[in-house]
Amino acid sequence: MSLSRKIVLSVAGNKLVSGFIKKYGMKMGAARFVAGETLKEAIDQVRLLNKDGLVVTLDHLGEFVFEESEALASTQACLDVLDAIHESGVTSNLSLKMTSLGLDLSKEMCLKHMRMILDKAREYDNFVRIDMEDYAHIDVTMEIFDELKREYGKHVGLVIQAYLFRTVEDMKRLESEYEHCNLRLVKGAYMESPSVAFPNKADVDQNYLKIIDMHLLSGHFSAVATHDDMVIQHTKEFVKQHNISHDQFEFQMLYGVRPETQRALVKEGYAMRVYVPYGNDWYGYFSRRIAERPANAFFILKNMFRK
């Protein structure tokens, strides 16, 4: 972890700072990265993105669940998202973290909640993306995904992280076992032991390109989640070289990050999906966006002192 990232996350953990940002942050600039605190605000933003040709995945923010009632509330929020997408007619799917659905409380509870969500997604012919979390959750996440994949088929997909040693073998298994294996390919954002993950950025970057190529060639749908021009260009050249149809993959970026590039890709004829988070529990997500790119802090400071 870089020094600047450590400093930002340390400051973000300060009670005085967090209290101030939580009170005024949305007005000062958090709204650049978070689509609002309410579902209605989020749907309004999705509608605007759709008008520019962008498709969306919505995520109700929430990370720490300690009670079954909290897990059920998070589950209901996901159901509400699917209802709102269907009723509004916007083009969006749903992304979620299974820890918010009670995974740390019990596997059975999480499975029950996931089935409630996927029943509705299948009813609406929509799609749910399961986020991959830290290494400690990978095995149970894979177990649950396998069970749900057999039941819900094309309506559920997974995130795969390039920085893990095991990733290529995991992908080979998934690609061979399932007819529809829609994977979101990312580099990975958690701090992991060098015994399970590549410690050097150059190795992660190399493995990321490797798994993009691998999944594109598999014939399954690939979601290439990146803001990196090099990765974007590599993907463009690879699909052209191998005559891979544009409907077999999409680029994905975060809401508020490189919006001009997002729209430029749409104009070039590529599918571009925007990850749109919303909800009251936005502070942790917002802090990580600042930590990833400390230049974003200047954007916030500018808004703080704007007359």
The average pLDDT value, as a whole number, equals: 86
At the third CATH level, what is the topology name of the largest domain? TIM Barrel
Q: Please estimate the helix content.
A: 40-55%
Shape: globular
- Low-pLDDT segments: 1-28, 296-307
Total beta strands: 8
Q: What does the largest sheet look like?
A: 8 strands, parallel, barrel
The protein's oligomeric status is: single chain
Pathway: Amino-acid degradation; L-proline degradation into L-glutamate; L-glutamate from L-proline: step 1/2
Catalytic activity: L-proline + a quinone = (S)-1-pyrroline-5-carboxylate + a quinol + H(+)
Pfam families: Pro_dh (PF01619)
Cofactor: FAD
Give keywords.
single chain, about 300 residues, alpha/beta, TIM Barrel, 2 domains, 8-stranded parallel beta barrel, 8 strands, about 50% helix, disordered N terminus, disordered C terminus, FAD
Question: What is the secondary structure topology, with strand pairs?
Answer:
Elements: H1 3-12, H2 15-28, H3 39-51, E1 55-60, H4 68-88, E2 92-96, H5 107-123, E3 128-130, H6 138-152, E4 156-161, H7 167-177, E5 183-186, H8 201-218, E6 222-225, H9 229-241, E7 249-254, H10 259-267, E8 272-278, H11 283-292, H12 295-304
Parallel strand pairs: 1-2, 1-8, 2-3, 3-4, 4-5, 5-6, 6-7, 7-8
